[in-house]
Amino acid sequence: MTRSNPLAELSLVNVGKRRRAIARRSLVGYGFVFPSLCFAAVFLYGPALSAVYHAFTNWDGFSPPQFIGLENFRLLAGDPVFLQSLLNVVKLAGWGVLVELTVPLLVARLIFGLRSFVAQYWMRMVFVVPLVVPTVVFVLVWGFFYSPLGGLIDALLHGVGLGALARPWLGDPNTALYAIMFMGFPWVDGFGLLIYTAGLQAIPDEVREAADMDGASKLRRFFRIELPLLSGQLRLLLLLTVINTLSTFTQVLILTNGGPGNATILPGLVIYQDAFLNQQFGYASAIGVVVFALTLVVNVAITRILRPVEF
Amino acid sequence: MFKAARRPIGTYTFLGLLGCLALYPLLFMVITSLKTDTQFYLHIGWFVAPFHWNNYVNAFSRIWRYIVNSLIVSGASTLGVLIISSLSAYAFARLDFPGRTFLYYAIIAMMMIPFLLTFIPLFSIVKSLGLLNTYWGLVLPYIATGQALAVFILRTFFAGLANDLFEACRVEGGSEWYAFLRIALPLSKPVLGTVAILEILTTWNDYVWPLVVINENHLRTLALGMVVFSSKYSTAFGPEMAAYFIGTVPLLLLLAVTGKTFVRGLTAGALKF
ipTM, 2 decimals? Predict the structure, then answer.
């Protein structure tokens, strides 16, 4: 009897088995991801592709859309309402960035410098608590502050003898957008505060000690050493602020409806009004595509141009 | 700014002042919620006795339904996100199948799609599925959008779990399903908590999507309900502010109970970038 090679036989059997095992495991894998993919296809990728398609159509949301090429985009370029909304959103984003990169950072650094950890914890909590106030409530309460009827701001102005300045802040086209910007004073955003704090905590103590040994002043130490090491956090908050501002319009939808005139119109609100009040679904989709493109550009620009500092 | 650090009294005063200003809108709600309209004009922005606790009874009787709706919608969305994203994150982290990387990036890339792009077509899809004026019309899209970040967070976590446990399970002949349910999930309770808080926060706060999907009053979520309340009873400041404060309490409670998990959920949004 010649000796067959048991190893070879075994491995042949194994290959078959292995293949089946791999196939079975692949099937298990697809089973696990199936629900996720279904949700993604139906409620995200489907609508996203549909938006891109409908941006090139004339569509009222009911009857079949007609393909009209770039007509929507041509109209957009000359639409004063849309252009005003872009200008407004740029102003809001600029202001948002300015505030987000300074106030929460200052507060984070001051709290971080406190000796007592208990004090640090509770001071941070004070600024985190306003984050749980629902957005809608925050907006409505600020609307209340601005109100010409028993509004807190006018009452304060009268109280200090500046009653002449009192006005319907949200109803005056000259002040409405600034009133929207001023909301949230003193702008100590709890989210930013937490992000900066995490960044400050990640800086090794040796780095600070080395700076102290060199006799650097605290102010110098902050600007020369800590700030560059926080560039990742700064960049993150810059990105988040710009992108959130581009797509948010809850505050103007509730408080001003874009008015008076178009003083506080924002791109999101134009989409909402065009689709749900004017049945211009195609046109609204085109605005959605423009906002998406802007988001991408901002994203790429900020991540490419502002590379984090390596150390 | 740093001179203050040597004299902490200055720092504490400054931070205390900012803190008072930051908390004032919340305090303003409480102050105003206890007043009649006459009292409101008497001393705007500060407490005036007697306190009208009845405003709370009045407000609660009108908004409890909205709170229940929000609890249902946020609860169902959170449960849905936890289920589908833990399943797929597990597969992306620990199973091998063709197209795994591509599919993973396809899910993650959804974070780059802004709501304003999908807004209009999503509405017409939800409408054609007959989901307008239903909880499903809110819950299903919330699950779909919420899963992107959840899959990212969970996959990172599952990938970091020690391999030995899963190997041992395989050697013993345990199925992947068993490994997922009995090993992966029990080990990831804290991170599942973070994902849950994140999802609760986003769904609880949403205003625009429920506004277009829900028309019937008895289905309105809290965010919608409060705006309706403000326009309907705009001259009854006390009950209005009481309603706002009641609407804030659920999340305040959640923060108080979950503490660190809550803060992690809050900042998890930063992982996007």
Answer: 0.88
